Amino acid sequence: MASSGLQLLGFFLSLVGLAATVAATFMVQWKLEQQGQLNTIYEGLWMSCSGNERSTCESHESLLKLPDEIQATRVVMPLCIFLSTIALIVSILGMKCTRFMDGKAESKSTTAMIGGIMFIISGLMSFIITSLYVKMIVQNFKESHHQQSVEFGMAVFVSWAGGLLTAAGGSFLSCRRCSRSSSESMSSNHLISTTHPKSNYV
């Protein structure tokens, strides 16, 4: 029962992490650049917007013209979403609260563990690529001798949170020791009941 609760906790953490990763991928506020007091440029992975009260947005037409950090993040973030989606399906098949693969406890536990490992990989990939994005922005800011007014947008923090939640949820789902202890306790209780049958004698 305890391991089933841990699996549910890990599943919902990973689900929230996946939602945060999807939201961060399509958010525009990855990088904020201030040009004067009235003009703010928001740069995302797929488009850039400028203006304060009235924002004008333009999609990135050419991939080769984009900075290296945006090109790398544009490749890895959708890959993380795809991997987490596959992990979501695999985890549902292996969770104890579902009726898939009933009667195959070992296979069910292994399937949940595989889904959890996929969540961990996806979360770490998201966290690492976001950290590299931030590192490149800081490096470009230093190379410009602090002439640019650049800040990190909300999407960076959402992506970090999504990666951490996804990896944390995956660690709960891949807790093979918890599922083993539960199955071993069930088998030991069954063994005790069969080796010590109730007597009908008075």
Report on the structure:
The protein has 5 helices and 5 strands. The longest helix is centred in the middle third of the chain and has 39 residues, at 105-143. It has helices at residues 2-26, 68-94, 105-143, 154-173, 176-195; strands at 31-35, 39-43, 47-50, 56-59, 150-152. Helices cover 65% and strands 10% of the residues. A 5-stranded antiparallel beta sheet has the order 4-3-2-1-5. The model is unreliable at 181-202 (pLDDT under 50). The chain is of the alpha+beta class.
How would you describe this structure in keywords?
202 residues, 5-stranded antiparallel beta sheet, 5 helices
Q: Could you spell the SSE succession in H and E letters?
A: HEEEEHHEHH
Question: What's the overall average pLDDT, rounded?
Answer: 79
Terminal CA distance: 37 Å
**How many beta-strand segments?**
5
Helix fraction by DSSP (H/I, runs of at least 4):
55-70%
Low-confidence stretches: 181-202
The helix/strand class is alpha+beta
Could you give a short account of the major beta sheet?
A: 5 strands, antiparallel
Number of helices: 5
Rg from Cα? 24 Å
Please state roughly what percent of the residues sit in beta strands, choosing from under 5%, 5-15%, 15-25%, 25-35%, 35-45% or over 45%: 5-15%
For the biggest β-sheet, the strand order reads: 4-3-2-1-5
